[in-house]
Amino acid sequence: MDYDSLFSADTASFMRSPVREIFKRVDLSKIYSFAGGYPSPDAFDLEGVKQSALQVIDRYGSKALQYNATQGIPELRQALSERYGVPLERVQVTTSSQQGIDVCTRVMVDPGDVVLTSNPSYLGALQSFRSYRAHIVGVPHSNDDGEFRARYEQAIDQCKRQGRKVKFLYMIPDFQNPSGETLPLSQRRLLVELAREHGFVIVEDSPYRELRYRGHDVPTIYSLDPDCVLHLGSFSKILAPGLRLGWILGNPQLLDQIYVCKQSLDLCAPVLDQYIATQFVTSGRLDANIEKIKGLYSRRCQGMQELLARYMPQGVTWTRPDGGLFLFLTMPQGFDAVKFYDRALDNGVAYVAGSFFHPDGSGLNTMRLNFSFMDLERIDKGLQLLARLIGEELDALGLRCDAGQ
Amino acid sequence: MDYDSLFSADTASFMRSPVREIFKRVDLSKIYSFAGGYPSPDAFDLEGVKQSALQVIDRYGSKALQYNATQGIPELRQALSERYGVPLERVQVTTSSQQGIDVCTRVMVDPGDVVLTSNPSYLGALQSFRSYRAHIVGVPHSNDDGEFRARYEQAIDQCKRQGRKVKFLYMIPDFQNPSGETLPLSQRRLLVELAREHGFVIVEDSPYRELRYRGHDVPTIYSLDPDCVLHLGSFSKILAPGLRLGWILGNPQLLDQIYVCKQSLDLCAPVLDQYIATQFVTSGRLDANIEKIKGLYSRRCQGMQELLARYMPQGVTWTRPDGGLFLFLTMPQGFDAVKFYDRALDNGVAYVAGSFFHPDGSGLNTMRLNFSFMDLERIDKGLQLLARLIGEELDALGLRCDAGQ
């Protein structure tokens, strides 16, 4: 049978996740993996999930296993509404925040429509945008507010000249994936101004926000203008990714389209999982778990910085995140992290090449490193190995800055 | 903000589920509901789910809460592979079989492409097809094999003349939703012949197959030709819909596109739920539960037939299913089940109007009645009420056949 003639036009733009492909190739437990965005196995409150499962089945009985509302079970929506100080009609539960990204794209993007992103940006989001044949425009960051605004304005103007409609801007303002960096308040305000001025929505993806290890919270973009922002939240990094639960906060008119779309996507999010998550939120277990996780990851984040400084060859630089799960490594120009990847994996260490996060395919000399999954001992050994391999590669390429080392 | 200008072209074809809208309007426990496809609250093995949750968390620890493979956790795929006698590489786990329908449509259908269905067919599938702007062609059933084949051939020829490509045929061969009827083997064979001849796929949706109350199993369409059929299965009716778990069996080349698509939809299906479901399959609990459910629903199905015969006015007919959750009621021509609906609901009884299941909007004089959700006592009272209201409506319309009653 000729299947190829049956596939939709969208499929030609489907992109395999290099992260998920890595996990098909190797057993994570047998290598040093800086690759995934996996929480630490120690980050899960196993006993709490167990107790919560028992409690919700005893308390809700068959309701815990039955179909429920497409918007999410009322109990969880109420809990999220209270936790984040948002009216109930502005809360939609999603089956993972990846679904949040997907459904936002689905209800807004026609082929050729523009999605603005930072450059680099989250791979899974780029995958989703591509799968709907969005025209993705990645805008490089600038620390200078004037330059920052100018870059976005330039990108928007260019799209307009091409007759393309900007549908939304996708942003992870807190401890960005992959860079680990946080957008200052002034730049969040600028983005809202631009959205208002040019009539597009901001999709604020915020899975790491509650994992801050130092410094102070910056207001969410959503809080600056709840009617031009769809705010995506997730239980994956603060409770457990295995529950596949996230949420969208936003204007009811936008959420209504998302709600109707979600009916045909999966009817409703996993119900038992929603009750378990509700139990976590309302019992205080979630806050306790977040505190535990912050302690754990904070040490790994700090330790990683120190180990990078100790092991990495000169000329290699990295970001210094205040939270989240990732930092971003930059090698000298000429280094190719995609090509280098097989050598690293053969030697037992994995990362994600930075170019996969760049919509324009740039950033060949960069890589994303995760610091949440492994303990510090393994981070230490893994980084020693990775640094040695990078050094050898730089030597082979004649790119080493510190010839004396 | 002008949101309307931001919505994708697909959204204009989104269709609200009348079933889900009913559930927004009324409290199910306060009315006689023949509307949903809800399992009976008594159909859930609450103790089994509780024990399984404990066991899998104890046994798998953090793995039960972590991310896992997009194809599904290996343990569940293995269990499904063995249960249904299908090679492992032909098993893809989905986050509900509604997702199975959605993802099959997404990887195959461009706007204007044809999806063939029976007429009537499952509402949630029609919603999904419409949301991708498929050209849905509903083919009325015939018990005569020659006529059955002729109708499908005629539909296919007409699509070809219109320059439209038939991408797949969607079929619920066992205890169909909404009719409750089962496709005989000869007609399953005919469909496979047509698919081969005209180069399209058959999406065989099979959520009720294991709930047979009398007669003998008919081979699945998948078993007749595993390379031209995508077989969708579900735990919703045999274990619990709240787990949101289904599966697709099919040719690995087709599954590969679905796998890549699913990466950007939600990364993976709920993991704890997958472990719980695995535990159910491998421990024998699932088979025990199916036996229990069959006993329960079989009595309701049979009882419903008897009560319909007792209460319904002459001129009202219904299907006699051998399994599943539904039967289909036909009133005399001229009866409008959509218009009648408000009156029924105001009087405390709910159903789904049959026209919603007809892609061409026909079937105004039909309704779908569910017999799994309520116990026989409530079915009795609800049917008495419904029959009285239908009788009054027939009187008002001058459509009653049995004037003497």
TrEMBL record, chains A, B:
InterPro entries registered for this protein in UniProt: Aminotransferase_I/II_large, Class-I_PLP-dep_aminotransf, PyrdxlP-dep_Trfase, PyrdxlP-dep_Trfase_major, PyrdxlP-dep_Trfase_small
SUPFAM superfamilies attached to this UniProt entry: PLP-dependent transferases
Gene Ontology terms: biological process: alpha-amino acid metabolic process
Entry keyword annotation includes Transferase: yes
Cofactor(s) annotated in UniProt: pyridoxal 5'-phosphate
One MF annotation (Gene Ontology) recorded for this entry: pyridoxal phosphate binding
Aminotransferase class I/classII large domain sequence ranges: 47-383
Pfam family for this entry, one: Aminotran_1_2
Entry keywords, A to Z: Aminotransferase, Pyridoxal phosphate, Transferase
Family as reported in the entry's similarity comment: Belongs to the class-I pyridoxal-phosphate-dependent aminotransferase family.
Quaternary context: Homodimer.
Record-given protein name: PLP-dependent aminotransferase family protein
Species this chain originates from: Sodaliphilus pleomorphus
